[in-house]
Design goal:
six-stranded antiparallel beta sheet; 13 helices; about 400 residues; 12 strands; alpha+beta
Length: about 400
C-alpha cells in the first residue's frame, strides 16, 4: 500500500470504506488527490481526504474543491425537483407554459420532465456556439428554444451532455427570476452549509484542485476486462466522426475543442469556473455532495430538499434500459437524475444521482438511507464504471448488508 496521509473522520464500523478509498492511491494508475463522504440516515459516517491537489505535492485539505463535470447535473436536477416539491412546477405540463419560446418547431407539448430526462431531442446546438456565447448570455437557451428536435421528444433518449444545463436552468430562471447558480446557492447550498457552486465566486478560486490527466494508454487495470468495454469503444469511435450524434453532443457542433489547449490558459479557466454551466461546471467537495443528497432522503439540520413523494417520482425510470443514442452505453434516466443500470452501478437499484467525467459522483439511496459523495483530480477512463468509486461503493454495500448486485 502506498504511503499517503489520511485526513478526516470515520465512524466506528465504517473503516472498510476508508480502506477501499485508500486502495485507490495504489496500483498502476494511482489516485493523486481525492475525498469521500458518506451519510447514513442523516448522520455523517465517513468524511476523509488524502493526497495532493495539483500533482506537485500541495496537500489536499479540508477546503479543497474540484470541478465535478456531469455530477453537476444532479445539482440542477435537485433544483428542478425542489420547485416541483414546493408546488411551483408541474413536471408533466408543457415546458412552453413557463418558457413560451420553447414552443417553436413543434415543441409546444413537450413536458418539462422530458427536458431533464434526456428525451427532448436537443442534445446539441444546430449552429456553432462561440466560447463567449457559451459562457455568458442567453444565446444557448434562445437557440435551443428555436430549433427542431433531432428526434421526436419522448420516442428515444440520448445523453444531453452539455445542453442539459441550459434546459434545466431556463426552467428554474423562468419560474424564480434567478439564474440556476443563484437559485442553487440561495435555496440548497446556503441552507445546508455546502461548499458547492454552479458559478464559482472569485474568493474560492484558490481552493480549486488542479486536474491531472491519466497517462495515455494506461487506463485502469480492471476496466479492460469489463463486459461493457465494446460500448465504450463504440462511443469513442463515434467521437472521431464529426457528423455523429455523439461527437456533436460533446463538442458543441465543432465550435469548441474536445480537449483543453496544450498551453495553460489561467484566464480561460477562471471564466469557466465562474460561468453557470449547470450541466458540466459545478465545483464542490465530497462532503457537500453527500450532504446534499442526504437532505433528499430525510431532514438534515432542519433542511429537507425533497419529500418522499418527489424523491420517488424523480427516481422513477423514464425509459427502458437500453443503449443511449449518444453514449451507446445502457442507460436509465429518471427525472433530473441518472438511475442505476449495467453501465452505472450505484448503491442499490433504488439509487439516484449522477457521476461525472473524471471520477466524481453523488448519489442518494432510499433503500439504505445512505448518500455518497466522491471527488478526485485524477481524470479517470469513464464517468460511469470508474473502478475507483466502484471499489468504495462495493465496500459500503457490504457494510450496509445489501447484495453487491442489489
Amino acid at each position: 500500500m502506498v504511503d499517503v496521509e489520511l485526513n478526516g473522520d470515520v465512524a466506528s464500523g465504517y473503516e472498510p470504506v476508508v480502506d477501499a478509498f485508500l486502495a485507490n492511491f495504489d496500483g498502476p494508475v494511482p489516485e493523486v488527490g481525492a475525498a469521500c463522504s458518506v451519510y447514513v440516515d442523516g448522520r455523517q459516517v465517513v468524511d476523509v481526504w488524502a493526497g495532493d491537489s495539483d500533482g506537485h505535492g500541495t496537500p489536499w485539505d479540508r477546503n479543497t474543491i474540484v470541478g465535478v463535470a456531469s455530477t453537476t447535473k444532479g445539482m440542477a436536477g435537485i433544483a428542478v425537483n425542489l420547485l416541483a416539491a414546493r408546488g411551483l412546477l408541474d413536471l408533466d405540463a408543457p415546458a412552453a407554459e413557463v418558457w413560451p419560446e420553447f414552443a417553436a418547431q413543434g415543441k409546444a407539448d413537450v413536458p418539462v420532465r422530458m427536458l431533464v430526462s434526456h428525451q427532448a431531442g436537443l442534445p446539441y446546438w444546430d449552429e456553432p456556439i462561440t466560447l463567449d456565447e457559451f459562457l455568458v448570455g442567453e444565446v444557448p437557451t434562445e437557440r435551443l428554444a428555436a430549433q427542431r428536435p433531432v428526434w421526436e421528444p419522448g420516442t428515444a433518449f440520448g445523453y444531453h451532455a452539455i445542453t442539459y444545463g441550459w434546459l434545466a436552468g431556463e426552467i428554474v430562471r423562468r419560474l424564480t427570476g434567478l439564474s440556476i447558480g443563484a437559485f442553487f446557492d440561495a435555496e440548497i447550498a446556503q441552507p445546508l452549509g455546502l461548499r458547492c457552486w454552479i458559478g464559482l465566486p472569485e474568493d474560492q478560486h484558490r481552493h480549486v484542485a488542479e486536474s491531472v490527466s491519466t497517462p495515455p494508454g494506461s487506463g485502469h487495470a480492471d476496466l479492460p476486462e469489463h463486459p461493457l468495454l465494446p460500448s465504450l469503444v463504440e462511443m469513442m469511435t463515434l467521437m472521431a466522426d464529426p457528423t455523429s450524434l455523439t461527437r456533436r453532443a460533446f463538442d458543441l457542433s465543432g465550435s469548441l475543442p474536445l480537449v483543453p489547449p496544450a498551453e495553460p490558459d489561467p484566464e480561460g479557466q477562471r471564466r469557466m469556473w465562474q460561468a453557470e454551466l449547470a450541466g458540466i461546471g459545478g465545483i464542490c467537495d465530497a462532503r457537500s455532495l453527500a450532504r446534499m443528497y442526504a437532505a433528499c432522503l430525510s431532514e438534515l439540520d432542519g433542511v429537507r430538499l425533497l419529500d418522499d413523494g418527489t424523491a420517488r417520482d424523480a427516481a422513477t425510470p423514464q425509459n427502458a434500459e437500453g443503449p443511449d443514442l449518444i453514449t451507446r452505453w445502457p442507460a436509465v434516466w429518471g427525472t433530473g437524475f441518472m438511475l442505476p443500470s449495467a453501465a452505472s452501478r450505484m448503491l442499490t437499484s433504488t439509487s439516484f444521482g449522477y457521476p461525472g467525467t473524471g471520477g466524481s459522483a453523488g448519489y442518494a439511496d432510499p433503500l439504505t438511507g445512505a448518500s455518497f459523495g466522491y471527488v478526485c483530480n485524477r481524470m479517470g477512463p469513464t464517468a460511469f464504471l470508474d473502478p475507483r468509486k466502484q471499489r468504495i461503493l462495493a465496500a459500503l454495500r457490504r457494510l450496509l448488508g445489501v447484495a453487491d448486485d442489489a
